Structure prediction request, 348 residues.
Amino acid sequence: MKQYQQLFLGIVVALIALYYTLRNVSFGEVISSFRQMDYTYFLPAVALMLLSYVFRAYRWRALLEPSLKINVSELYSPMMVGFMGNFLPARAAEILRPYLLSKKADITFSAALASIVMERLFDLIMLLLIFIWVFWFEASVFSPDLEFSGFSVQEMAIKFGQICVFAVFALIVFIYLLLNHKIRIMKLVDWFLGFVYENWANKIKHFIDEFATGCDVVRNYKTLAKISVYSFLVWIANIFSTYPLYYAFDLQQKTVFSILVVAIVVSIFITIVPTPGFLGSYNAGIFIALHEIMGESEIKSVSFGMVGWVLFSGVILAGGLYFMFHEHMSLKNLVGVKIKSGAPLNLK
Prediction:
């Protein structure tokens, strides 16, 4: 019941966001825009999207080095099926990926989860660098008069940036304490678990211990450098995967700055507007970035958002479904995955 409630709420939010982007355009205008666009640019867009997942797989392998030695080819299945979790209630991708990996390879769920936390840390750092660059040189593009459903986009962007800074700082401090003052941390954990059943207390301590092992990757500077390079490549491929659509719709400003603005605004909306598969939140982010900020036509901005969402969703769903059927996974069990490392995943 809780899952259905989350799904219903997500759909409602998605519909509100879609209404915001579609309220001033007609169905006929959208169809006309689709007819006029150049479909030949879809191929490089999809190729860059696929390339971003290749870089993600290599980065994930590097993040897993302290806990697991694995071929990149073996990571595509848990990665792509896991990313399909974004279409499930509560966007369960961050849980599905380590869960599936722990069932596929010789690694605990907690150690695999640590690699996902580290991955998010590097993603936040990359996003902050882009954020700082845009606000440093072109802060004026985020007009205080620009609003989304009564909320100031400028204020949303600033708050989002502040939260990202806090999250990065908190994660770095947490990982530092866990790796360098583990004995003290475990003593503190023992004190907190004093009133918990011994069996549960042991499981929690084991989880923290394995999680710390997964974070140990930051001690190896060579591996850390590889992760940084892969993170840069992931974001380059991800950001520029939408650039071919600028030519498909023949937008006015085919600039790197415009692409960076799109990346920032979309990142803000898919984070703070929780919708299944980013439907609506992605579209609203594209619409605000292209039409409200960059001054592109309303109909092209709406159509761009629709096509962009279909392409990146199609890549995730096609890859996820391929590996799911290839490895005979049950969709019912994926939906019902619980947030614990010992839950069984039935294969049919």
